[in-house]
Amino acid sequence: MDTGKRQHLQDIYSTDQTVRDDFTPQVSSEMMEERKREIRRHQFISFVLGMVVLVLSVSLVWVVVREYMEIHSMAPSPTPITQDYIPRYSLKSEAQWVLDFTRSYGDPEWKGEGDRPFSSEWVLKAAYNLINAQQADSLGKYTEAAGYYEDVLEILPDIEGVKVPLGMAYFKLEHFDKALALLENAPEADLTPEVLNNLGAACIEAKAYDRAESYLDQAIEMKPAYAEAQKNLGVLYKEQKKDEEAIMAFERYIDLRPADLDTQHNFALYLTKLGHWEQAAELLHSLTEEIKDVPVLFFLLAQVETHNNNPEKAIEALKRGIQLSDPNAALAYMDVSEFEQLRDSDEFQIMIRSLEQNKK
What we know:
The protein is mostly helical.
């Protein structure tokens, strides 16, 4: 074979020494170590950069939180003491001047000699207290309202239109003697049905029953569908032991306020005390159609139906009451004397045994 051709073929099948050396065990091991070191360097750099980013993020969050806390911990700007419960927007523009004064401005105490002067300053003091009283009253702050109304009367004792709202504030605070002293001398023009009803209620509390009846009758005469006056009239007759009149008044009230289920319950109890079992049963059946989750109503109905000699209805009511009660409470309800005539029946005994087992 030609020498040149043989050399050419030898070049084709030969391998470069540097490439061939890469695959020797020693060189391959060194390259693997170098690559591992390179990977570790990259991992270290990534870790350091990640930690830097994390520290910067935490620092930024801390700065934001600290600024937020400093802003909210700053002392609020002082507000006049008169704005404690009077929103400025709730006052008419011509009345907002009162918010520019401290409470001491309306002080009714006169430190001079003789009578308090009737001057523009004292008229403004009275107006200041009156505006504050009306706003407090409208917000349901009756103690504050009463205090301001009292200051108005201290400054201008003969002023009109103050005694009635003061009396109403006393009534809402349950200071019935004070309310009665003011309201009973109120001008006739100020005696609205609401005022008369409250006068009647105050008289009931004071046990001035004749005056209470007069006021409540006047309120109902002025406003025949006045439910609250009918209810107070029922309470009055109940206190006076005028049971038939009380029943009629409560029935009129329930007709006007059928959604007042609490009063219906109390009325049913009142009927049972009077021994009006059939009327009580009718009321309780109606009531338990509206209220289906109060066990005491069903146990009361069971007692009433027992008195009406309706054992089937009594047992049915008992079962419903038991379903709504825990065993101990149910056993206590069923231990009353009214159920003596049911106690020997099979159904009653089954209920007792079931309750005793569940109790264990």
